């Protein structure tokens, strides 16, 4: 458990699997930090895929794909009734 | 800009940006350094040329790289295919009527992107370039302006060092002007003095001539005139004090029958009258009276010339030349009188 001491600073890839719950619990769950997290994520994506000299489809298409998926997940419950076969 | 403030606050709350505790996949953007410590307003690094690489327009390259060590090149594709089949077979993805519309829409989109994507990209790039060129122009213009201002400033400073040339020129001009006026005045002084001296000389010469004339006249007419020898030479100095020809003529002893006032040049009529009278008196007098009249006229000329001399020397000084005396005598009618007097006297 010697690695617990520095757990907060680690990135996801460096965290050991056993320390995962404690690592997650170390986050701030204040609204301010959550908003900060969203902003950071947004800027990360933006600066990587959109705010470039020669951007491509990727920047927008990923967002749209994510949106599509999100909506599909939302509607899944109603879609379940339109399944073609009952047993899979 | 507000976001940066919030970011910095958030970054302050959690120690550093690499607080990937809140972030998903641990991939950091190495190119854009963002909120490291304190925000610096120094020149922002330029935009990256291309965005993060993406395969199939949807899946970032990092995913493929993530799976490469374990599964090689085909890993993610196999994974994708497997996932799709799984969703279909388990009907996690339900095939409905919308499926077909989705397929056709996506097919169309892909076709359009494949065909016109490059040209649209170029068009957008051109627009960008125009914007950038404009800004660049503004920047260059401002730089040029400032450079011009700097150069002008420098040239003016250089001029300041060369100011002394201007002052030297002005000083020289003034010195020349002063010299000029000094010399002019010196010359004028010289002329004036010479004038006065010339006047005295010419007056003396005139007096000499006149006194010889008077002497000869008196000598010739000594029996008629009751004049003693001693008074012959005394007339001359008294001539200078008299102002007009009339006064001078009045000094001379008047022969009987001759009115000295009639011999002024201005009164020609009077002269004529006097001549008539002299003609009349000629019958009564001998030839000497006519000679006396002639002599008196000659004398009067000379005396007039003396007066004129005075006037000429003291009124019209600038026109005098250096060797005035012979010219003057030449100019005046006294020349004729002079020579005729001598001819008569000798």
UniProtKB/TrEMBL annotation, chain A:
<dbReference type="GO" id="GO:0046933">
    <property type="term" value="F:proton-transporting ATP synthase activity, rotational mechanism"/>
</dbReference>
<keyword id="KW-0597">Phosphoprotein</keyword>
<comment type="function">
    <text>Subunit f, of the mitochondrial membrane ATP synthase complex (F(1)F(0) ATP synthase or Complex V) that produces ATP from ADP in the presence of a proton gradient across the membrane which is generated by electron transport complexes of the respiratory chain. ATP synthase complex consist of a soluble F(1) head domain - the catalytic core - and a membrane F(1) domain - the membrane proton channel. These two domains are linked by a central stalk rotating inside the F(1) region and a stationary peripheral stalk.</text>
</comment>
<keyword id="KW-0375">Hydrogen ion transport</keyword>
<keyword id="KW-0999">Mitochondrion inner membrane</keyword>
<dbReference type="GO" id="GO:0045259">
    <property type="term" value="C:proton-transporting ATP synthase complex"/>
</dbReference>
<keyword id="KW-0496">Mitochondrion</keyword>
<feature type="transmembrane region" description="Helical">
    <location>
        <begin position="55"/>
        <end position="73"/>
    </location>
</feature>
<comment type="similarity">
    <text>Belongs to the ATPase F chain family.</text>
</comment>
<comment type="subunit">
    <text>Component of the ATP synthase complex composed at least of ATP5F1A/subunit alpha, ATP5F1B/subunit beta, ATP5MC1/subunit c (homooctomer), MT-ATP6/subunit a, MT-ATP8/subunit 8, ATP5ME/subunit e, ATP5MF/subunit f, ATP5MG/subunit g, ATP5MK/subunit k, ATP5MJ/subunit j, ATP5F1C/subunit gamma, ATP5F1D/subunit delta, ATP5F1E/subunit epsilon, ATP5PF/subunit F6, ATP5PB/subunit b, ATP5PD/subunit d, ATP5PO/subunit OSCP.</text>
</comment>
<dbReference type="Pfam" id="PF10206">
    <property type="entry name" value="WRW"/>
</dbReference>
<keyword id="KW-0406">Ion transport</keyword>
<dbReference type="InterPro" id="IPR019344">
    <property type="entry name" value="F1F0-ATPsyn_F_prd"/>
</dbReference>
<keyword id="KW-0472">Membrane</keyword>
<keyword id="KW-0138">CF(0)</keyword>
<keyword id="KW-0007">Acetylation</keyword>
<keyword id="KW-0813">Transport</keyword>
<dbReference type="GO" id="GO:0042776">
    <property type="term" value="P:proton motive force-driven mitochondrial ATP synthesis"/>
</dbReference>
<keyword id="KW-1133">Transmembrane helix</keyword>
<dbReference type="GO" id="GO:0005743">
    <property type="term" value="C:mitochondrial inner membrane"/>
</dbReference>
<protein>
    <recommendedName>
        <fullName>ATP synthase F(0) complex subunit f, mitochondrial</fullName>
    </recommendedName>
</protein>
<keyword id="KW-0812">Transmembrane</keyword>
Automatic annotation (TrEMBL), chain B:
<keyword id="KW-0999">Mitochondrion inner membrane</keyword>
<keyword id="KW-0496">Mitochondrion</keyword>
<comment type="similarity">
    <text>Belongs to the eukaryotic ATPase B chain family.</text>
</comment>
<comment type="function">
    <text>Subunit b, of the mitochondrial membrane ATP synthase complex (F(1)F(0) ATP synthase or Complex V) that produces ATP from ADP in the presence of a proton gradient across the membrane which is generated by electron transport complexes of the respiratory chain. ATP synthase complex consist of a soluble F(1) head domain - the catalytic core - and a membrane F(1) domain - the membrane proton channel. These two domains are linked by a central stalk rotating inside the F(1) region and a stationary peripheral stalk.</text>
</comment>
<keyword id="KW-0406">Ion transport</keyword>
<dbReference type="InterPro" id="IPR013837">
    <property type="entry name" value="ATP_synth_F0_suB"/>
</dbReference>
<comment type="subunit">
    <text>F-type ATPases have 2 components, CF(1) - the catalytic core - and CF(0) - the membrane proton channel. CF(1) and CF(0) have multiple subunits.</text>
</comment>
<keyword id="KW-0472">Membrane</keyword>
<dbReference type="GO" id="GO:0045259">
    <property type="term" value="C:proton-transporting ATP synthase complex"/>
</dbReference>
<comment type="subunit">
    <text>Component of the ATP synthase complex composed at least of ATP5F1A/subunit alpha, ATP5F1B/subunit beta, ATP5MC1/subunit c (homooctomer), MT-ATP6/subunit a, MT-ATP8/subunit 8, ATP5ME/subunit e, ATP5MF/subunit f, ATP5MG/subunit g, ATP5MK/subunit k, ATP5MJ/subunit j, ATP5F1C/subunit gamma, ATP5F1D/subunit delta, ATP5F1E/subunit epsilon, ATP5PF/subunit F6, ATP5PB/subunit b, ATP5PD/subunit d, ATP5PO/subunit OSCP.</text>
</comment>
<keyword id="KW-0813">Transport</keyword>
<protein>
    <recommendedName>
        <fullName>ATP synthase subunit b</fullName>
    </recommendedName>
</protein>
<dbReference type="GO" id="GO:0046933">
    <property type="term" value="F:proton-transporting ATP synthase activity, rotational mechanism"/>
</dbReference>
<dbReference type="InterPro" id="IPR008688">
    <property type="entry name" value="ATP_synth_Bsub_B/MI25"/>
</dbReference>
<dbReference type="Pfam" id="PF05405">
    <property type="entry name" value="Mt_ATP-synt_B"/>
</dbReference>
<keyword id="KW-0138">CF(0)</keyword>
<dbReference type="GO" id="GO:0005743">
    <property type="term" value="C:mitochondrial inner membrane"/>
</dbReference>
<keyword id="KW-0375">Hydrogen ion transport</keyword>
């Amino acid at each position: 458990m010697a690695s617990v001491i520095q757990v907060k600073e680690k990135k996801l890839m460096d965290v050991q699997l056993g320390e995962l719950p404690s690592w997650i619990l170390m986050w701030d769950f204040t609204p301010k930090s959550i908003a900060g997290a969203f902003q950071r994520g947004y800027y990360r994506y933006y600066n990587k895929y959109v705010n470039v000299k020669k951007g491509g489809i990727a920047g927008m298409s990923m967002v749209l794909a994510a949106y599509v998926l999100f909506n599909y997940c939302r509607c899944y419950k109603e879609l379940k009734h339109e399944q073609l076969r009952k047993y899979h | 800009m507000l976001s940066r403030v919030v970011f910095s606050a958030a970054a302050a709350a959690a120690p550093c940006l690499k607080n990937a505790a809140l972030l998903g996949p641990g991939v950091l953007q190495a190119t854009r350094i963002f909120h490291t410590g304190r925000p610096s307003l120094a020149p922002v690094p330029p935009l990256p040329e291309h965005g993060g690489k993406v395969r199939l327009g949807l899946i970032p390259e990092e995913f493929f790289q993530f799976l490469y060590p374990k599964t090689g090149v085909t890993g993610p594709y196999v994974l994708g295919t497997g996932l799709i089949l799984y969703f279909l077979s388990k009907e996690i993805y339900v095939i409905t009527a919308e499926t077909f519309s989705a397929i056709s829409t996506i097919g169309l989109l892909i076709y359009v992107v494949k065909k016109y994507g490059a040209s649209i990209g170029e068009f957008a790039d051109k627009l960008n370039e125009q914007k950038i060129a404009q800004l660049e122009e503004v920047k260059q213009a401002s730089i040029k302006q400032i450079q011009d201002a700097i150069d002008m400033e420098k040239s003016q400073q250089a001029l300041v060092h060369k100011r002394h040339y201007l002052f030297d020129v002005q000083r020289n001009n003034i010195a020349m002007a002063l010299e000029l006026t000094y010399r002019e005045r010196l010359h004028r002084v010289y002329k004036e003095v010479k004038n006065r001296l010339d006047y005295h000389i010419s007056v003396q010469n005139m007096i000499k001539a006149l006194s010889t004339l008077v002497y000869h006249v008196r000598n010739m007419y000594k029996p008629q005139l009751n004049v003693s020898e001693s008074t012959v030479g005394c007339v001359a100095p008294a001539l200078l004090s008299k102002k007009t020809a009339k006064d001078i003529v009045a000094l001379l002893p008047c022969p009987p029958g001759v009115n000295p006032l009639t011999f002024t040049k201005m009164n020609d009529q009077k002269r004529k009258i006097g001549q008539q009278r002299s003609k009349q008196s000629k019958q009564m007098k001998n030839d000497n009276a006519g000679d006396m009249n002639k002599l008196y006229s000659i004398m009067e000329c000379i005396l007039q010339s003396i007066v004129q001399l005075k006037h000429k020397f003291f009124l019209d000084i600038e026109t005098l030349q250096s060797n005035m005396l012979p010219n003057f005598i030449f100019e005046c009618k006294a020349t004729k009188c002079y020579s005729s007097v001598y001819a008569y006297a000798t």
